[in-house]
Amino acid sequence: EYMCDPTRADAAFFDRRLVDADIEKAEQPWRESAGVKYWGDYQPHHMYAIGADVGGGVKQDAHAMGGWDFDAQDPRKARFIIRYTNNTLAPDLFGEELKRVGAEFGHCMLAPENNNTGHAVISVLRGYPNVFTMRVESKHKLVIKETLGWNTNKKTKPKMFFEFRKAYNDGLLDIRDIELLKEMRSYTDMD
User: Fold this and answer.
1) Whether the Cβ atoms of residue 38 and residue 50 lie closer than 8 Å to each other
2) Are the CB atoms for 121 and 94 separated by under 8 Å?
3) pTM (2 decimals)?
4) Other Cβ atoms closer than 10 A to 56
5) What's the CA gap between 108 and 181, in Å, rounded?
6) Per-residue DSSP letters for the chain?
7) 8-36 pLDDT, tens per residue?
């Protein structure tokens, strides 16, 4: 029974009371352009960043981007303002979409996933002025390796989710996108 409706499982990852309260405050996007949904417009004095989950390619796992507007007074606080999902674009064309939307927001930081088909996105983003760089220190040598993009793996994925949950539970994230909130509501400890 829980397999058909994960929201009924007891192992909720996010506090469902908080998520349900935010679902009540959810808003329709202010506008939509080329499939990108916006809950805000570019303000030159704000800081922005866009994270990207690179899917498997055409008609496979969907590509997704999410954009954040960071509070000028307290940069720990952020508002979710951009969402895009697409499972029909080739990864390199998704990279072009990232560049286009990033340019709309002052060439904000882009943080794409770099594993699997993410390499196609990274190659398109070469030359973009603000791509997240991941630093990894070697355990055995005095070497620091820098790579463009975010590597999602068994170490980084839990860290990313736990930090996101903590920021959300601490009231630092303002999310008005009902689709993202529904995903959060159904996400469990077993995912």
Assistant:
1) no
2) yes
3) 0.89
4) 13
5) 24
6) -TTT-GGGSS-BSS-HHHHHHHHHT----SEEETTEEESS---TTSEEEEEEE--SSTTSSPEEEEEEEE-SS-TT-EEEEEEEEESSS-HHHHHHHHHHHHHHTTS-EEEEB-STTHHHHHHHHTT-S-B-EEEEE-SSSS-EEEEEBB--STTHHHHHHHHHHHHHHTT-EE---HHHHHHHHH-BTT-
7) 556 889 999 999 999 999 999 999 999 99
